[in-house]
Amino acid sequence: MKRFYLIAVLCLFLTACFWDEPIEVTHLTKDFNLAWWSDSRHQNLFLNTNHNEYGGVAIIPETVYALGYNDDFIIAKQYPNLQKDLQKRLFAEGKEGEGFRILNPADTIYLSKDDRIYQKNGEWYHTSNGWNPPPHLFPYKDSTYFYIVDIRSYENIKAWDIKENIYRFDDQEAFRSKRAQLGVSPDLEFTIFNEEPD
């Protein structure tokens, strides 16, 4: 009987890959992939020399929900991840059991009702009883960022400067103006859509 249980447990370990979370990769052009793992909220634009693999350098983080590309430019729309930003602010300065400094008092609305908020040496702190942010913060659909990725000079991952070739805009008018300035073809449109990320 022990041998049966041992074999059953061993089979579970060997077949664990069947329960892995799904990974989707779409190769675009050159070394650029649109990919996500687990669910479409994690969709990123990656610079990766292996066209069929997830990962690499995330040049536009989650959630990329619309994208167009040619051999010269990639254009994208992205919903920001406010959950990640909020988590960094709420848990950046402090230690578990000692309390975390509150950097922005408005963030306290997202704390657990069981958290203790207290003042020490003129600063406000909270103790954490878990983290359960509201789902509407990721993706945050009340805000859209627009991107232009200039890949005309791209030859390889080491020679291409990410900071000089990626432009982010908070509004569509600034995005359109930069498109015209860079000479992005008017025929380049958003052709890959995921309007309702999970």
Automatic annotation (TrEMBL):
Task: Kindly indicate where the leader peptide sits in this chain.
Answer: 1-19
What domain of life? Bacteria
Query: What are the UniProt keywords, alphabetically?
Result: Signal
Protein's recorded name: Lipoprotein
- Natural source organism: Aureicoccus marinus
